[in-house]
Amino acid sequence: MASPESLKHEPAGSSAIPHIVALGSGYATFYAYRELAGWIRRKRVRMTVIDRNNYHCFHGLVPEMLAGKLQPGTLLSSSRRLFKHAQFCNGEIKDIDLQRRTVTFSRKLDGKEFSVSYDHLIVGVGSVEDLKRFPGIAEHTMRLKAFPDILQVRNHLLTMLELADIETDSAELERLLNFVVVGANYAGVEVAGELAEYLPTLARRRFPNVPVEKIRITVIHSGERILPELGSHFPKLQAYAQGAITSHPHLRLKLGIRLGAATPEEAVLDNGERIPTRTIISCTGTAPAPVVDLFPAERDRLGRVITDEFLRMKGVPDVWAAGDCAAVPHPKGGTCPPLAIWAMTAGRQLAKNLKATLSGWSPRPYRFTGLGDACTLGHHRAAAHLKGVPIRGLMGYLAWRFFMIRYLPAVEKKWRLVLDWLLLPFFGRDLVNMNVHRPVLVTPVMYEPQQEIIREGDVGQSLFIIRAGEVEVLKQRAAGSDPEVVATLKAGDHFGEVAVFRGIRRTATVRARTRVELLHVQREAALALSESSHEIARTFSSQYEPKS
């Protein structure tokens, strides 16, 4: 295997200048860079930032973007502008050699690898979605961490209204107009509040055939009260926010209940209740980015790397960490929460300590204890607190807007944000459904027991391969009679190929007998596979009658 290429374009004589490499371009890295920018300009240090994306996504505005109040690009700031005095490398981090002090990363085009050496390393890789919290989360929920996923959710919401506008089947209409939000933390409550304002208003104005009264947003939360971040310090704010949710005609709140499983057509709760829906938005939690597994460092119970009070990674020399991937000691005990303001302030203190270390001075401990929080509730309301002072309603919402403008990284995006807000009353929301994602022709899916996977008489556009579990094949022998089980299929079997290859409607119903994991193969992919391999063609063209 070829060795990684050394990173080019290093300034002449730069080997004597301390080189700081930052992994990830989130808040922690950005605020560290701002603190180091003066030294970088004066060539006292060099800095290289490595990230798979060449943009920074501002998650505080995600709910408003989903609801069409903001253009999608308003959330994004160019990394090359944010880190204009540093070298930015757009690549995927592959390996870290702590002995040689090198970082290896690859480009997405073809996997070609590059390496860069460092004197000090900043780890600010953030977090990723935790896809192990319940069955079906990876296959059948929508997430709000990566920007492509956020954009997909925005388009999906419009698609549901478009489909509901032409749907005549009452059961399918219910699935299209039921929206489930899992988690009543800040993200979940803000998303639910925006959707409860957005979807009924939009349906009333632009979708005349959608029964507005059937639109439901259900918030599922395992705790007994929403917004656990407010804890015991602001019980009145917590009660105000919960009252705003429970009093809304289109919102339902289910507390003390967990999502047991997610399927293409239902949200299955752990109490046995099933909510028919085609939209499950998961705000349930995150896990540290896989990059942290490359470090032999201590971890907390959430998997974050443990730092000391100076933001140095314990047990790893010359490596610093901050943000969602780091368990930073809180000055009052415990660890700091994975929120943006803590990443910002930790990143700034990290850089100050790094400069002190390079200057031969003693670093200072991280002493930030919090500034405030704000959670929007829809209809220009928010529950907020600033330095311990609670604010709610319209004043809370204005405070939230101030924080959004204040902490949006790029100056030009601040102006675009204000412009979007000013133009909203005159031109309304953006209703364009871009559907820019390319279709995936083979996808994993999961069904719970007794769920119908395909139905007799439906148009057949795909086939299924069983990965785990069992299904039952049912046929109706005579008109008006109950369907009978004619076959049971297990892992390794397939069904649905008769309708796909013969171009006819489904000749049987297939129902999950147990929880079943399947590969869903679209017709185009099935035809391409059968044309390219005689063995696959023979397998799929078995013409076993019950396998419809």
Chart the SSEs and their pairings:
Elements: E1 5-6, E2 19-23, H1 27-41, E3 46-51, E4 55-57, H2 62-66, E5 76-78, H3 79-82, E6 87-90, E7 92-97, E8 102-106, E9 113-117, E10 120-123, E11 127-129, H4 137-140, H5 147-164, H6 170-177, E12 178-182, H7 186-206, E13 216-221, H8 235-246, E14 251-255, E15 259-262, E16 266-269, E17 274-276, E18 279-282, E19 286-288, E20 305-306, E21 319-321, E22 326-327, H9 340-359, E23 372-378, E24 381-386, E25 389-392, H10 393-407, H11 411-427, E26 442-447, E27 452-454, E28 462-468, E29 471-475, E30 484-489, E31 494-495, H12 497-502, E32 509-512, E33 516-522, H13 523-532, H14 534-540
Parallel strand pairs: 1-9, 2-3, 2-10, 3-6, 10-21, 12-13, 12-18, 13-14, 20-22
Antiparallel strand pairs: 4-5, 7-8, 8-9, 11-19, 15-16, 16-17, 23-24, 24-25, 26-33, 27-32, 28-31, 28-33, 29-30, 29-32
Helix pairs in contact: 1-9, 5-6, 13-14
